[in-house]
Recover the amino acids of this structure.
């Protein structure tokens, strides 16, 4: 997904129909569309994917690349199944999901698109996971990083299963356009003799991301080695 970097493009709150109209205006060229005509209002699951539940008063990961994010309600495109005058909203102050009457004019809009994102300009040279007893050590290195905001790590118990983010805050970039960097993350929320799969996401300053992996590893008890 590619989100607009500015999370308050309409310049204020609006009704549900007003949010849909604004996105339609972007695609028609009435409003700034950044060269794309496939913008839309996110569905509720896409909107929820932005949330970091460990945060409040703006429940987005620390170091996120967005601007003008409001600590209030944001519209999704998803209408409530039983009450069609209501749509699902996400409250970015605490990160919870609720519903709002479509005629309410105090909810914000954040356009998204699923078209091909601009590739991130991070050159990854290695991405590995090594097993210890009761933990996994994940390491990666870059050769260069242009406009890199940082990284996220995701874990799954099956290679093609659902991956969950395991870092509470974005892992900040340390490299540059001329010099790479090395990173390490320890995942202690694992069990011995169980295989885990990891993916690495890099995010640039415009909100575009690229995934790497997966790599797999099985933590195990190694006697005499902590």
């Amino acid at each position: 997904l590619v989100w607009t970097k500015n999370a308050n493009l309409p310049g204020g709150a609006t009704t549900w129909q007003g949010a849909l109209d604004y996105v339609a205006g972007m695609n028609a060229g009435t409003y700034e569309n950044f060269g794309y005509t496939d913008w839309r209002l996110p569905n509720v699951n896409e909107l929820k994917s932005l949330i970091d539940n460990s945060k409040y008063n703006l429940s987005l990961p620390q170091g996120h690349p967005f601007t003008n994010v409001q600590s209030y309600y944001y519209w999704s495109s998803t209408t409530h199944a039983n009450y069609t005058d209501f749509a699902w909203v996400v409250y970015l102050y605490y990160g919870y999901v609720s519903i709002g009457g479509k005629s309410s004019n105090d909810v914000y809009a954040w356009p998204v698109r699923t078209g091909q994102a601009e590739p991130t300009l991070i050159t990854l040279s290695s991405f590995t996971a090594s097993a210890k007893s009761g933990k996994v050590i994940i390491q990666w290195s870059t050769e260069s990083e242009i406009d890199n905001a940082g990284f996220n790590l995701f874990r799954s118990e099956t290679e093609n299963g659902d991956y969950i983010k395991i870092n509470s805050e974005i892992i900040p970039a340390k490299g540059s356009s001329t010099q790479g960097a090395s990173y390490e993350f320890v995942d202690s929320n694992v069990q011995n003799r169980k295989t885990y799969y990891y993916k690495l996401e890099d995010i640039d300053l415009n909100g575009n991301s690229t995934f790497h992996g997966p790599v797999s590893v099985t933590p195990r008890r190694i006697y005499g080695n902590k």
